[in-house]
Structures are given as C-alpha cells and as structure tokens.
Amino acid sequence: MSLSSVYEHKFKVGADTKLPFLTEKAMESSIKYINKKFPNLDTRSSTQHLGPVHKEKAEIFRTLTAYYQTFVDVMEFRDHVYELLNIIDATQCYLDINVNYDFTKNYLDLIVTYVSVIILLSRIDDRKVLIGLHHCTHEMIHGTSDASFRRLGQMIIEYENPLRKLLEEFGPHTKTVSHALLSLHFLFARRNHSADQWRADQLFSLISNPANMLSPASSDTVSMCGESMFRMGFLLCHSCLGSTQNCLELWRMALRGSLYITLIRDEVLPIHKVTEEAFSRVLGGVGCFSYEFFGWFLDSGQLHRGRRNFLRNAVREMEAILANEPGLLGPKAIYIFMALSFCRDEVTWLCRHSEHKGKNQEEFTDSCLAELLFLMERLRKLLKQHQNIIQRYHIQYLSLLSIFIFPKIHYQTFLSNH
C-alpha cells in the first residue's frame, strides 16, 4: 500500500473521471440504497434495489477488485501503525533526532504518511459505493461476503470525520510524539531564523573569517525533515501545547511557514483552517483562534521576503568567489549545499503563496526571483563543472582523518574503557 495508490484511485473516481457504471441511469437506485444502508447491506433480501447490479455483477466485480484491495491495504496499514505506535510507547523507546536519527525520523515520517493516507481516503467521494458494490457482487458470485468487509465498512464509518478520529487515536501517544518533535527544537529554530539573525551570524559568508577560509566547513546538525511533521504532530497531540512552552514555540514557527500542507501532488491540507475548526470543536470556542493562526501567517510575508533578499546577496557573493577560486569548492562544499537548500525552500514558499490575497500583496511577489534562480543555477553548474575538485579534496581529507584522527579516538576510547 502506498500513498500514491490511494491518490490514483481517488483521481480515477473523481467528478470528471467516474467509472461508467456509476453514471448509468439504471444504477441510481442501487447506488442510493448502498449509500443509505452502508455497511449493513443485505444482498439476498434487496433484489429489487440491486437488480441492475446483478445484471453486471461480473464486470463490476472485476473493475472494483483493485479499488477494494487498496481499501483493505489501508485498513491493514492502519492496524500495523496502531500496533507499532503501541509497542514504541510500551517499550519506552528513546526518540531523539540527535541520538537516534533514523529511528526518530522514520517514526515522524510514519505519522505524516499515516495521517495523509487517512485524510486522502476520506476524500474519495464514492468510497462507500465502491466498497458496497464490491461486497454485493462478491456475495452474488461467491455466495458469501469478503472476510474483510465488516471491518472495512466499520473503518469507513469511523473516519467520516478523519481529524476527529485521529485526535482520539493519538491522545495516548502525546508524550512520545512531543518528545520526538522537541528534539528538533534547536535545528528547526535555527533553520527558521529571520534574515537579520542570518546576517548577524554571517551565514554563508566565505570571507567573514579570512584566516579560516581554507579550513573545511562543518555542521553540527543533521538533515532536517519537513515542517509537515510539526504541524500534524502538534495538531494531533495538542494537549502538550498548553503544558510545554517549547512545543508552542515550535508549532508557531511551523504555522508561520505556510497555509497548506502538501499531502501528495496536488492534494493539500489547509492547516490553519483545519486547526481552527478542530480546536474550536475540542475546546468549545468558535473563531477564537483566527488571530493566533492567521496573525502568525500575515507576518510571514515580510519574513520570507527578507530571507530572499539576504540569500540573493549571499549567494551572489558566494558564486563570485567560487568562480574565481574553484579550489574553495572542496572545503566549503557543505555551505554551497546548505545555501541551495535554503534558496529552494524560499522559492518553493513563494510559488505556493504567490496567489495569496491580503493587504500586503507586494510581500507575496518578488521581481528579483529570476536573479535568485539564476544564481542557484550558476552554483549548480560550478559544482558540476568542478566535481573532480570536490571528490579529490574529500578523498584526501578522509585519508588524513584515518591516519591522524580516528586512531586517536580509538585510543581515547580504549583508555576510557580500561
């Protein structure tokens, strides 16, 4: 089961691409009956409603088998996620991105994927009809219903309102999820600094410290995951927002980033709207979170505009220096990749919010975007053109590490153990 397979089936049964038998006039009464009675469908005593289905049972069964199996896969995926999350809680696994990077990242990615699958499943308009028709034709052909139908039908009913059900499910996992997210606090906070803070830190400047220009650049941080995990994680485990200040700070920074979460391709989740509706229902207020959510976002246009201006100047300086001194590509390679990553994020943000309607519309447009893209391409070409320099530098660098650094580390470890 994959997120893309659920998306594909959603696309195939969309308003413009409905399956042929779902649009037939003769099938209307059967479809209405299935929608009304689902999942309690009695094939034997409902022949007057299911007569048209009986006539085309072989074709309908053949067509819907792939769809039905995808729904079953989603149900089994949910069961496995339930089991895994409970095991992680029961065994009190230590989730810290700085200690158990792969484990923590995969744990958070699993939550994002699971939530995306469930939300996407709830957006398949004819899911009851597809499952119900498959059940009826299966019983007509084989004389008995599919073994998974009852549980699958119950799952579809439970997730009529997917967010409410997800909030219930993740309540017991709040401690584990929040601990994993909090381990990202330093990394995420630094990644989301303002342009003034970047400027004060002289981020990406190769000439800020001439004495160390030839020294290899390094970073004490690990690769960051997307903002989706913060928005989804704290939405599902919202109780920690009132008890832990760092959780609230992280969540505010994540909400400031974007109005939408991309589930897959063109499927998005309007996170501010969904959060306001969910919290209004949970806490009993109506509209009391609008300023909190959208106030943070209204300030983000200016924040991102400042970042783009800073990155444009920083990357222009970096490109000019590296074009004249390509030998610096070796020791400063990590700075180049970081700069390209930061630029990519800002370009993506602007593209996603360029149609935003607000008072400060000029903050969501950028007449200098082409220059930033041009500079990014120039950096990319420099990396490709001089990749032999980067390779040779790091081969020599690693060989020196193996001679001078690693033996010293092993010796110190040996002494500490004896």
What's a concise summary of this model?
One of its GO terms (cellular component) is SCAR complex. It contains 19 helices and two strands. The chain is mainly α.
Question: Could you walk me through the main structural features you see in this protein, from its secondary elements to its overall organization?
Answer:
- One of its GO terms (cellular component) is SCAR complex.
- This is Nck-associated protein 1-like.
- The protein is mainly alpha-helical and 418 residues long.
- Helices cover 67% and strands 2% of the residues.
- β1 and β2 form a beta hairpin.
- α4 packs across α6.
- The protein is elongated.
- The relative contact order is 0.08.
Strand and helix layout:
Layout (H helix, E strand, L loop, with lengths): L2 H10 L15 H10 L9 H9 L1 H34 L10 H22 L4 H16 L6 H10 L3 H9 L3 H9 L2 H7 L3 H6 L27 H9 L8 H13 L2 E5 L2 E4 H13 L6 H9 L1 H25 L8 H21 L15 H17 L1 H31 L1
Antiparallel strand pairs: 1-2
Helix pairs in contact: 1-5, 4-5, 4-6, 5-12, 6-7, 9-12, 12-13, 13-15, 16-17, 16-18, 17-18
Q: If you compute it from the alpha carbons, what radius of gyration comes out, rounded to the nearest whole angstrom?
A: 27 Å
The coarse silhouette is elongated
* Class inferred from helices and paired strands: mainly alpha
Low-confidence stretches: none
Strand order of the largest sheet: 1-2
Portion of residues within helices: 55-70%
Give the number of DSSP strands. 2
The main sheet comes to: 2 strands, antiparallel
Mean of all residue-level pLDDT scores: 83
Organism: Naja naja (Indian cobra)
Protein name: Nck-associated protein 1-like
Pfam families: Nckap1
InterPro entries: Nck-associated_protein-1
